[in-house]
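Sample entry was shown:
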Amino acid sequence: MTLLFLACLLAVLPVVSMRSPIFGPQEMSRVEGSSASIKCYYPATSVNRHSRKFWCRQGARGRCTTLISDSFISKDYEGRANITDIPESNMFVVDIGHLTQSDSGLYKCGVGIINQGLFFDVNLEVRPDPGPLNDAKVYIGDLDRTVTINCPFTSANANERKSMCKKLRINEKEFCVQIVDSIGFVNPDDKDRISLIVQHSQLMFSVVIKQLKLSDAGIYSCKTGEKPKGDIHDVDLQVQEPKLLYGDLRGSMTFDCAAGPEMNKVPKFLCRVNNEKTCEVVINSLGKRAKAYEGRILLISKNNGLFSVHITGLRKEDAGRYQCGADSDGEPQRGPVQTWQLFVNEETTFPRSPSVVKGVVGGSVTMLCPYKPKDRNSMKYWCRWDKQTGTCSELVSNEGLVTHKEEYEGRLALYEEPGNGTYTVMLNQLTTQDAGFYWCLTNGDARWWSTVELQIVEGKPDLKVPENTVARVGETLKLPCHSPCKFFSYEKYWCKWSTEGCQALPSQHEDPRKASVTCDQNKQVVNLILNPVTKEDEGWYWCGVKEGLRLGETVAVHVEVKEKAKASQDVSQGHAAPGEEVIEPRGRGAENRVIQVPKLWAEEKAVDAGDPAGGSQASAGASSSTQQGGSSTVLVSTLVPLALVLAVGAVAIGVVRARHRRNVDRVSIGSYRTDISMSDFENSRDFGANDNMGATPVTQETSLGGKDEIMATTEDTVEIKEPKTAKRSSKEEADMAYGAFLLQANNMATSIQGGHSEA
């Protein structure tokens, strides 16, 4: 089983390795005595640049005899051949002079120690010298195109046989091989592509040769009639060899075409030769493009009939023969063309990059653009491919946003990171109109140009920020940016966008005095803090994530900065909670207005017999405050001072009572005992006869309060003036008090307290 597997593997390996990365001309046709210059391309690797280059001739049984290499030259090539390596262009050139017919044959140009390494087959044909030309007219034909050769004749030979033959020289003998004539003969090998047309009115016949080959080049003779009266004219037909283009898989290729100054305003085209030897339009300046090249081909017109065609994202099926030229219809019909042979090296070193990126509406995309590492100082560009015209409109470069692209303001930036062969383009605030093809360009090696298709799909952005924000000058602005858990390990950042890019803002520990960034890893929120806000802070800000030098998704928010509120607004309004209304005081008296809490007010009445007028005024003040303000802030600011006043009053009353008790004389009358202050007897008349009603003989001990217990507890309490009474002697007052005590001993304390409350 193992042997069978190895046998199958060995059978497959030769098939895989048949596609050699060495590329050169498939066939060359030269005239004897002329020279040939064969260009052979090889992959741009260090090994290939330093390896041996060779040119050998194939013989029987697959053997290839070395004729010349970078360290050897055969005797047959001494003095007429040399080999030159051009590593900066990844090619070497074999120049051979003084060609003879014996040089015709099959050769190999290659790289390696042995001649069976990497190589490319070249078929060299050396035609015999036709000898001296008698003012032969020169016709230049394009490979795979059609050429028409016109042969005039005289009226005397109008009815004679017309024919055309090709001149050859073999062993110093000249021959003319018949190609076509007017009586129906056509060379069997060219039956489907050569024809003869007689135009009697113009005394001329034409030979049309289609699908020109390199072997068609040579000297032809047009004949009408026979010698010596016949008309004979020689024609030199030259067939242009294709120019070689060596491209790498996933790389880019440029066709530089010259249609001529007279074709400056004529539509241009590039076509590809198919198996039927017809040329199908790949792109033209009239808007036509082949579907296989959609979004990755670009036509740029220049002055004097010059134009360039760029194909990027090369595929192996792009290899083949192309032609470019100019025609009024934009089709390869009549005008001259240039022929190109494109080879695509599948053993490429070009980095893989996605050909399609997807984004959601409102989200962002990040695209990596490759460039040649040696071109790190080159200009980098990013443009959008126009489907209608096949051109690419530049949007941004490493010097900043293109000024006339207002629709990309605040949402497009180009970074030269991560560097060393790659730069980054970021586009956010995506819309459905952003879908299409975009190109990454540099003014360096055009082979590194690339293209990517942006597709807009359904979904929601991963990063979330507030919508457009308004900030005030001098205040602090805090902008949160929410990210999902999949970005937990990523670095989060904020940057301020400008036409030159998006400048990253420092984190809080780097520069805490103004713009700073803080991050809550648990909630996956990164905050942008502007403290204090200035007018220069207005603009676009991006929140993004990155992993090392690789940038990820972004989201944008616009900050509008306005001036601070006018001074006419009350300062207290800035301290009000959102949704609350602050009532401004309507007079100086309102500053002293006190809001009373019912519970506290009841306690005050229990210990303080205040002025009724003052009480009603305070009550009215409380009612007025309650109607005017519903603000909890105003209520609290009023109750706190009131509580302090009540506490001071309670302490004062306690101090007065303590002092009063020190001045009390204890009087014992029979079985009753009480503490009576001598000052109480001074106004005993105030109690009147009613105080003595309902007296009972119940023995009790009570305390009588005096004037010190009725003192005001607030500053705005109004004292009621009492009428003056006539003074009595101390003995009379003592007798009256003693009698009253005997009649109403049980209710004295209650009557006295009731009298004080009513007062």
Remarks:
- The first strand starts at residue 27 and ends at 31.
- Residues 137-240 form a domain with the Immunoglobulin-like fold (CATH 2.60.40.10).
- The chain has six domains: 20-127, 137-240, 243-345, 356-457, 469-562, 597-759.
